[in-house]
Every structure is written in structure tokens, then in C-alpha cells.
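Hi there, hope your week has been kind to you so far. Do you reckon you could talk me through the fold, stretch by stretch? Thanks so much in advance, here it is.
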Amino acid sequence: MECILNATEEKLNALESAIADLQAYQTEVKKLEAYYTSADWKKDFALDEAGKLPAGLKRGVLSEDGVYHALERNRELLALIGEER
């Protein structure tokens, strides 16, 4: 039982830390959401579609589904911890 108690405390501490990190990171998530819904994102997406961005450039942020799903997961997790936006 001592091992279970210790493991429980470790997991709870890790979860509390992860929740605090997620809460503190919301300013950055809001920046991502603002970019994703902006004319800048549409312009960057069009440049990518036209093949005008460098070949080696990471472009995950130009993936419509990738950004949408990340923002949705963020909303779902905030709701789970009682902090709906």
C-alpha cells in the first residue's frame, strides 16, 4: 500500500504540474488561434499551395486539420479541468 500511496502522490503531482503548464501556456495558444483565423494564415497557406515557400520549411501550422485539432484538444482539456474558454 505504501508503494501505491507513493505512486499516487507522484502521479497527482505530475498532473498538477501539467495543468499549471497548460494554464500558463494559454497566451501562446491564443496567439496560435489568432494566427489561424487571420488573413496572414490564409496568405501563408496560399503561398504554400503555390509552392512559394522553401522546401525544407516546417509547415505543420499550415495544416488546417493539425491546428484545428490542437485547438479543439486544448478546449476539451480546459473543459475537463473546469476552465472553459
Observations:
- The chain has four helices and no strands.
